[in-house]
Input
Amino acid sequence: MLTPIVIDDVRPRTPAGFPAKAVTGEAVTVSAVLLADGHDRLAARVRWRHMGDDEWASAPLARRDDGRWDGTITPAVIGAHELVIDAWTDRYATWRHEMDVKVAAGNDVEVELEEGARLLEELAAAQPTSDGRARLLTAAEGTRRASCSLEIRLGAACHDEVAALVEARPDARLSSSAVHPLWVDRLRAAHAAWYELFPRSFGGLRGAAEHLRYVADLGFDVVYLPPVHPIGTTHRKGRDNSLTPSPGDPGSPWAIGSADGGHDAVHADLGTIDDFDAFVRTAEALGMEVALDYALQCSPDHPWVHDHPEWFTRRPDGSIRYAENPPKKYQDIHPIELWPAEHADRVALWEACRDILEHWIAHGVKTFRVDNPHTKPLAFWEWVIDDVHSRHPDVVFLAEAFTEPPMMAKLAEVGFTQSYTYFTWRHDAWELRDYVTELTQGPLASYMRPSFWPNTPDILDDGLRHAAPSAFAARFVLATTLVPLYGIYSGFELAENEPANDTTTEYRHSEKYELKTRDFGQPHSLAPLIRTVNAVRRKHPDVWSLRDVRFHHSDDERVLVYSRGHAATDLLLCVVLIDVTEPVETTVRLDLGALGLPADQPYPLYDELSGDTYVWGGPAAYVRLDPTAGQVAHLFHVTR
Output
């Protein structure tokens, strides 16, 4: 379709036209490149509304120095939105500019004054109110008043009231529009701290509910549970992933299903559905919500294996294929074939998978951590997330997809709210800078929300194997301050650091296959640090937007320096050790202009971790961090 103005490179947007993401109450920068022939002045605005609403909200777009046009919107309602950019030739602004130039040059502008009067008459016809029409017609009359001075005639045409009436109304003859979808989530979908625990290690749901006060006291927003369903006995795994379990070995929670039920049942050892409901209520009373694992796979004993064998892939010998992620083998798990040959089977299967979500939503779950979504069809995720959101727009989906970047991005694009990332494997300062910049400043930031996890039940990273608590502390500070979303797996605060062997990321005596008894009161626990950092995150909510991170220079690459926010509103300066093997002294060099700090005046800094106050002046400052004394980072609150 031919249009007079090209509206290009709209942001936020996704590559394939799926909805970009925003959050209620948080300002979103909307921008585009506008292209048109000639020298006429352009104008633009952005309009948005919740899908189905009659009324539009709007905001002007202004041209930046780099040629892009941008403005901000602040959605107030969760759910699907329409986002429209309107651009038009601003004949009134063009006329005023030409008059300024010609009058300054001493030209005769009588004809131009008549053109201005006629333009005002034409614009008056488009005014929605009689008062507006009358005001513009009066201005046109004054512009033609030849008995008055040029200054008075120009004043009539260029009065602020006149400009205000015409500047925000597109010229229908010379305008173009671009429509883009936008999905708006609740705040906790974009800014939250997660804590993962296995209820069975606390004696079941009732025991785990008693532990929730500890989790809440540390400042977490979400408590995440692995699958709580019955566990199969066929090919059950023993301790340390053994193929020969001992009597009493509980098996992997991800081997879902037995004669006692499937994905909609609670394992008898954990309690009852009433115990689950009570767990959810206890979490809510403590200001947290419960996230539940959503794993589309079955043990050989799952009712679906017997009732719907057509939902599984069979090998040539007639056996059902078990799950593999070479070199890992999961003999106790059958993956579900979500794209069976028969359409009727697919419809029934997809609806059954959707009904699992509906079941747990009815029991108070609003957040799901989705296990290995990259092994399932993208079309399924597009359908099921959209279907669930049509009734429950507040539901959050976290994609646990440690796979190739294009697939991780596509899962986010088709609807996943949050995404696991490669943070666990990024250690050097340059790696972290590049990766965080890619996630927060590039196109991905329009639709992929990264969540940083220093550890998971599957991943004890190289940097934490046999590491001291100071290494755990440094990784924790990085995860919590580089992006708004993060999580840890229970035991992280105790610096659990024993790998299964020299070649795997698995833990020795993994909780996936046995019960764990922990002493959370150990003297070297990182609980005080975790509590403090989470309190800082809540104390400074304005600095935790995804894009609001800026890196600065350190003379020693063992120290990473970055800031969040701006001195005009709220500013945090983070100085974090990357290498905790010894004390490090360095000079940090700040971009004061970007931070909004003066180059010729001192500025005080309050360290939220130690409680100490410093005064710096100018862009360069000396810093010393000593991991042997428990000092792995500064979190400076910068004040003017």
